[in-house]
Design a protein that fits this description.
The protein is of the alpha+beta class. It has helices at residues 15-25, 30-37, 41-49, 52-55, 58-71, 76-81, 101-133, 143-150, and strands spanning 138-139, 174-175, 193-197, 201-206, 212-218, 223-226, 233-237, 242-246, 249-250, 257-258, 261-266, 272-274. The strands form three sheets. Strands 4, 5, 7, 10, 11 and 12 form a six-stranded antiparallel beta sheet that branches. It has a four-stranded antiparallel beta sheet with strand order 6-3-8-9, with no helix packed on it. Strands 1-2 form a two-stranded antiparallel ribbon. Helix 1 packs across helix 3 and helix 2 crosses helix 3 (41-49). Mean pLDDT is 74; it is low at 1-12, 137-141, 143-151, 154-159, 161-170, 175-180 and 185-189.
Length: 277
């Protein structure tokens, strides 16, 4: 069968050309297709030109091709399997941006020790001063003794005519009070942002200053753990294979997914915000 538009056999036409012709037959522009698929217009144009390098990693190319073909009612799986995409080049990682787990644990322990030392430096002198101030005894007279001492002497006397005092003088017992300062509360450890991958995913992680922390194709079963302030922006491909835990709780990624890609930024206080592009 030949195409009425090009006069060439259907199976000899490129995938991008087939998508473009299907879009024209549907009466849609690249902007309208991008709005329906929630993709940038330049990504639609790159797919039609088969400019794979402009789109990114193979996992992005396959996902966007499948979505475009499904919208145009074309066999998406067959088209994706016939695409020959370049192998992804491993990202060159800078060793200083990765902190080993043991080093992170030592740094957290050191911060807690500093907190304990500072607290002890402040609390111990206050406790000693309070104790020395209250070390002396406070004299107090019991109520029953005071009542006996202030009551009037009875009239009369003993059989021999002598008058004696019926209330004997009793020594006042000392009353000692002490105050123990409360123990300082233990420092709360900073929570981590954990990203787990159940399938192949292409990631791009940036620091708050915009420098690239990591850009690589992650294999299934791998995991990334970040401390607050280490990551400023994250782009994670193949959203169905990505799960994120924030402050120890699973995070719903629905607000952060666009075209099967997870995009979010991390603010200075550790909260996550979606990225529109």
């Amino acid at each position: 069968m030949t195409s009425s538009e090009t006069g060439m056999p259907e199976n000899t036409r490129g995938i991008g050309e087939r998508l473009r012709q299907a879009r024209i037959r549907a009466g849609l522009t690249t902007s309208e297709v991008g709005a329906k698929l929630k993709m940038p217009t330049h990504a639609i144009e790159a797919l039609e030109r088969e400019d794979w390098a402009r789109i990114g990693a193979p996992v992005f190319i396959r996902g966007q091709l499948r979505s475009y073909a499904r919208l145009m009612e074309l066999p998406g799986n067959a088209m994706v399997e016939s695409v020959s995409t370049p192998a992804p080049r491993p990202a060159e990682l800078v060793p200083r941006t990765f902190t080993p787990r043991m080093q992170r644990m030592m740094e957290q322990t050191a911060r807690r020790l500093v907190y304990v030392v500072i607290t002890a430096t402040i609390a111990v002198p206050v406790w000693l001063a309070t104790r020395s101030h209250l070390d002396g005894a406070i004299d107090a007279v019991p109520l029953d003794v005071q009542s006996a001492a202030t009551s009037p002497r009875p009239k009369g006397g003993s059989p021999d005519g002598s008058t004696r005092n019926n209330a004997a003088a009793l020594p006042a017992p000392p009353l000692v009070a002490s105050i123990t300062p409360p123990l300082p509360q233990r420092a709360v450890a900073a929570t981590d942002l954990t990203v787990s991958f159940s399938g192949e995913s292409w990631i791009r992680l940036s620091a708050p200053d915009g420098t690239t922390v990591e850009q690589a194709l992650v294999q299934p079963g791998q995991q990334r753990v970040f401390q607050p302030g280490q990551i400023g922006k994250a782009i994670l491909g193949n959203a169905q294979a990505v799960s994120v835990q924030y402050r120890g709780q699973p995070l719903d990624l629905t607000p952060y997914i666009r075209a099967n890609v997870v995009r979010f930024t991390v603010s200075s206080d550790g909260s996550l915000q979606p990225v529109d592009r």
